[in-house]
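hey m, so remember when u said the tokens were messed up on ur end? i reran from scratch. heres the input so u can diff it against urs
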Amino acid sequence: MKKYGYTQSNADHSLFLKRQNGKITVLIIYVDDMIVSGDDVDEITKLKTCLSNEFDMKNLGGLKYFLGIEVIRSKQGIFLCQRKYVLDLLKEAGMLGCQPMDPLIEQNHNLEELPDQVPTNKARYQRLVGRLIYLSHTPPNIAYAVSVVSRFMHNPSEVHMNEAIRIMRYLKSAPGRGPMFSKNHHTKIMGYCDSDWGAKGERRRSTTGYFTFIGGNLVTWKSKKQKVV
């Protein structure tokens, strides 16, 4: 990519950019899957030709599916979701027929690791929560609940497993949730953050959350327990 005049991003080493004549071409790659985008049509055509000369390539056309993420285009913008991923996860867990549940997690839940807790299947818990962590790429509203259950990967209990199952039942109610990127004709950046300021238990460590909008569209979000008080 560098030979073709592209610059590797410092934020994500799988992202390559090329700017020329006021236009931009973008390529992002994961193992043997890649996305090519941008507003420089001539450069995109040239890039695809160059890559085909270097590798055995297959052009799948407009972006519809990438690493478990579905891409749906409309006149209003671009919608992302992981509906198939959610349904596959529910099927794998034997929960396709489960009853949906709302809310996602109880307010003031006080989940902790206790000395007298009833242990659960650690491998099953780790696999389930690991899949939920990847699922957090699209529905932002599950970020906090997933961050909570991921805190007990090393020593999960039946209570923690029940909370992970609760998230699955919440997903069953609408497996196609995800962010919408609309055409708002501006690129204003806005960010929000907050903290619960030392919730009960868990050694008084706070949970921080943030999310960022670019052009009125949600692009980043996170919920994480702080490392120190």
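this time it looks ok to me. The chain has a mean pLDDT of 90. if urs says something different then somethings off w ur setup not the seq
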